[in-house]
Amino acid sequence: MNIQDLASIALDTLRHRSLRSWLAILGIIIGVAAVVTLIAISFGVSDSINSRLNTLGTNIITISPGGQSSQRSGILGGGGFEFSGPPPSGFQNREESVITFSEADSLRNIPGVNSLDAQVSGRGQIEYGSKTSSSTIVGTEPREFPKNVGVNLTEGRFLESSDIYTAIIGASVANRTFGDTDPMNKQIKINNMSFRVVGVLNASGVSSFGGSDSSIYIPQKTAKTLLNQTKNVNKIVVMVADGYNTQDVANSIKSELETLHSIADPTKDDFTVTTALSMQSTIAAMTNILTLFLGGIASVALIVGGIGTANTMFMSVLEQTRQIGVYKSLGMTGKDVMTLFILEACIIGTVGGVLGVLLSIAISSIITSFGLPVDITPALAIFGIAFSAVVGIISGLIPARNASSIPPVEALRYE
Amino acid sequence: MSALIELSDVSKSYDIGNTFFALKGVNLKVNEGDFVSIIGQSGSGKSTLLHILGLLDKPSSGTVSFDSNIVSGIPEDGLATIRRDNIGFVFQAFNLSPNMSVSRNVELPLMIRGVPASERIAKVEKTLAMVGILDKKDRIPSELSGGQKQRVAIARALVINPRILLADEPTGNLDSVTGTAVLNFISSLHKDYNITLILVTHDQIVASHAHRTIHIKDGRIDSDVSKAHHANAKKNK
Q1: For chain A, which residues lie within 8 Å of any Cβ of chain B, measuring from their own Cβ?
Q2: Where are the domains of chain A?
Q3: Chain A closest CA to B130's CA: distance in Å?
Q4: Contact status, residue A358 vs residue A27, Cβ threshold 8 Å
Q5: Which residues, other chains included, contact A229 with Cβ-Cβ below 8 Å and sequence gap of 6+?
Q6: Which residues of chain B make contact with A9, given a CB cutoff of 8 A?
């Protein structure tokens, strides 16, 4: 029998017992809406993290002391470690887990390294008037800093080579320390040393993990004294020259440092080289787990919807037993009867899927208004509908097979 | 005349604790153009016989031939195809689809047969006009009287121009006036279109419309009488 005719018979049946059909559809709607919304949330989170990573630039490489296994910071980039001085022993894999300024200088000669900023950083006590607070202090090379900070100035200027006691402050620091007062040319004390604010950075959105919003940038030479750290760097930021592949340059830096540190086994590196690409793949791995986790939880709702559909289909077959006998007496084959009931279940699944996706779009717009990024892509919508159609078909399989195997005489005798 | 349906030594048994025979060694020939009534008390095996004649059921032993081909061994889907193309059924309880309009009910066998949608409407309306309920074509079965429902059921059986029409107690759920009207209509089909008719009933008056009456008792043919051959009363026994 042709499939359109079977579908039109299935629709007749569904319309006839519309309340029960709609209840089964409702179960699917809730399941699909849960799956699509939760996956969309994790897509949205992933997108927003990636777009922030992209502002860091794809041609920037950061190098920090400490191996991959001991690395706990720096993923979201910006300020790097917040220890004052070299990381305490015991936290690191090995004692010699440092990068010296002279090692940093030798990296400048690697082909593809356009510029290199050897930074020192640590926590500092900030005083302005009666206000005191604590911030990440980053000592940066004045010429290199504008290229790698990733954000522009709201006002003022960047650091200059001749600067000594000058500072550029992040957006959150400006807000916290000065409130409504204009910070420009104000004197602040960092660890009891006086600095003049010459610039304020735009907000980057990265305020945690030592991001630029919560940091204060001072000349590297001054920072060495202020933080009492003359020998070792906390972070190196490299800009890759045009025409060079960032990953290739990162690999060259890695092998140069391995040579300098006499490391034969790359898995035992006592430093970490990070590119935007490698950060993205780390984040992608994390958000994929998030997607699977949320999708998995939501699938439970869809499975419950599927069980509801299966129940409706068993009832439908039972109710229509005599009708199945009539269909068969009129010459419908077992295969046609099976297709008929699978179509019935598939229609429940598909209608539930379409309405579920529409519901998830509505829920998403509410969630978005609360500031959580949600991203329902066309592919996700199609996936939601297709998935629920498949759930419908699977729910209908056993009832449909039961229906097709009833002998016509027995079906006709059914009261 | 060649036999349209032929049963040879057909038995049907059910295992219900002990073996119960609904039919025992039945031999029967129904020729093209026959009008046969099968009469017997309830439990006599007449419905089982009708189901086997209509290829809805298979015998436990013996052979069934349709159009000179032995069909008792072929699988259910093969029998479904023979029914689809040759056999119309009318049931005591009408068995209309409650979900469908009158015209959809009558269209159903054409859909199963794969008749294109464009040809179906004309056939459905012609058949509904023939049974006299074209004006009810958009109603659903629950809105019809018993007699009207049975006319829809007859239209559904006739729409494929079957070679054989099997009716199982077609007047059993109708009052006597409506029953007589339906019976007269069924009888006229035989007269006007020469359709082979097999009618199962427990009512002697209903059975008397047929040209040949088969009495069935305890799963065996008790008598097989043709109006034209009263002299040879007992045949096939």
Answers
A1: 1-2, 5, 9, 12-13, 15-16, 322-323, 325-336, 407-409, 412
A2: 3-51+283-413, 67-269
A3: 20
A4: no
A5: A84, A85, A86, A120, A122, A223
A6: 100, 108, 111
Domain boundaries along the sequence of chain B: 3-232
Q: β-strands A187-190, A113-128: how paired?
A: antiparallel
The sign one gets for the Cα dihedral A10, A11, A13, A19 is positive
Please judge whether B111 and A9 are an interchain contact, meaning their C-beta atoms are less than 8 angstroms apart.
yes
Q: What is the pLDDT along chain A (415 residues), one digit of tens a residue?
A: 889 999 999 998 888 888 888 888 998 899 899 989 988 988 888 888 777 776 666 788 889 998 765 444 434 433 333 343 444 444 444 455 789 999 999 999 999 998 899 999 999 999 998 888 899 999 999 988 888 777 888 899 999 989 999 999 998 899 889 988 899 999 999 999 999 999 999 887 654 445 788 899 999 999 999 998 888 999 998 988 888 888 899 999 999 999 988 888 888 888 888 887 777 788 888 888 888 888 888 888 888 888 888 888 888 888 888 899 999 999 999 999 999 999 999 999 999 999 999 999 999 999 888 878 888 899 999 999 998 999 889 988 999 998 899 999 999 888 7
Residue A19 CA neighbour count, 13 Å, CB half: 0
Which chain A residue has the Cα nearest residue B101?
A: A12
Nearest to B56 among A5, A329, A336 (CB): A329
Q: Regarding beta strands B164-168 and B87-90, do their DSSP bridges make them parallel or antiparallel, or are they unpaired? A: parallel
Its sign, for the CA torsion A176, A178, A183, A185, is negative
Which one of 3.40.50.1100, 3.20.20.70, 2.40.50.100, 3.40.50.300 gives the CATH number of domain B3-232?
3.40.50.300
- Global ipTM: 0.90
Element (H, E) at A156: strand A153-156
